[in-house]
């Protein structure tokens, strides 16, 4: 007897739970959200949700980790199409802010809500992966530690701009972003980052 392959249904439902949880966490924050909230929003009972995720923390951590993985994968694919270091940094900012603008709920989770314990660790992993990604595109004549510090500065710049944009959107009641919102954020950030790197390298 051949049993039906239930993996597609399992994966589809798991993805559904992740998407619903991302929305609920973004609206309410981690502490205020319960597994009942997520299950109810998804249209299932809590015991079914627990078949896919052992705890609220594990559900939250997977959302953060998957957002970071998607970011790095997309960055690698897009940056590979560019030749010059400046072009690579510019396209990295475009990829980053396209995700911020088009997956607002995920980035509200990352930057607007408070993190502690394991959730803070997942966010730190995302940040460190982004730093490691940027290091090879900073002048190789600079020492490795200094290059990592500069890369961390660029990540901090990107996060700061993203956070402020999200706060501004929230204060306006989450209007539909302008069509060029991601491009403008990326352009301003890239110019600021590149200008800072050039000034530093002249010292």
Count the strands? 0
Structural class based on helices, strands and sheet pairing: mainly alpha
User: Over all CA atoms, what is the radius of gyration?
Assistant: 19 Å
The N- and C-terminal alpha carbons lie at a distance of 74 Å
Describe this structure in words.
This protein has a domain at 61-202: Tetracycline Repressor, domain 2, CATH 1.10.357. Helix 1 (7-28) crosses helix 2 (35-42), helix 4 packs antiparallel against helix 5 (85-102) and helix 4 (56-79) runs parallel beside helix 7 (117-134). The protein is globular, with a radius of gyration of 19 Å. The termini are far apart. Helix content is 76%, strand content 0%. The protein has 203 residues and is mainly alpha-helical. Mean pLDDT is 85; it is low at 1-5. The chain contains 9 helices and no strands.
Give a quick summary of the entry:
This protein has about 200 residues and is mostly helical. Helices cover about 75% and strands about 0% of the residues.
